[in-house]
Amino acid sequence: HVQLVESGGGSVQAGGSLRLSCAASGYTTGNYCMGWFRQAPGKEREGVAGIYRNMGNNFYADSMRGRFTISQDSAKNTVFLQMRALKPEDTGIYYCAATVNCGFGFREERYTYWGQGTQVTVS
């Protein structure tokens, strides 16, 4: 069983930056995929970025590419989401999630474990 805890959210002015963290604990060995999702107020949750734990390969939703960067510290079982040039439309709850295969992309039903989310507010 994997536990995921997000942190690093907060309030920031448009144009600012935030770095979100997702710490994984429990069964964290082996290759698995970590994904970041977000849910804006009144909208469906959408995928942001993902990364293979062992290989480091990453992928992004087209609309997130360029301003958002996913990375990891494997030794600390932590995945990061660096967000730059933030816009008000980036406001929402950001979740990290884990699945066994990054080939699932952003198919939420394939992600077994989810964190509780961290709020990001851009004004």
What does this structure look like?
The protein has 123 residues and is mostly beta strands. It is 0% helix and 50% strand. It has no helices and eleven strands. Strands 2, 4, 5, 6, 9, 10 and 11 form a seven-stranded mixed beta sheet that branches. The protein is globular and about 40 Å long. It starts with a strand and ends with a strand.
Q: What is the count of helical runs?
A: 0
Ends: how far apart?
A: 37 Å
**Largest sheet, described in full?**
7 strands, mixed
Rg (C-alpha, Å)? 13 Å
Shape: globular
Provide the low-confidence segments as ranges: none
| Topology as a string of helices (H) and strands (E) | EEEEEEEEEEE
Helical content, roughly? Answer: under 10%
How many E-type strands?
A: 11
Strand content: over 45%
Mean model confidence by pLDDT: 93
Which structural class fits the helix and strand makeup?
Answer: mainly beta
Quick structural overview:
The protein contains no helices and eleven strands.
Annotate the secondary structure layout.
Layout: E1 2-7, E2 10-12, E3 18-26, E4 33-39, E5 46-52, E6 58-60, E7 68-73, E8 78-83, E9 92-99, E10 113-114, E11 118-122
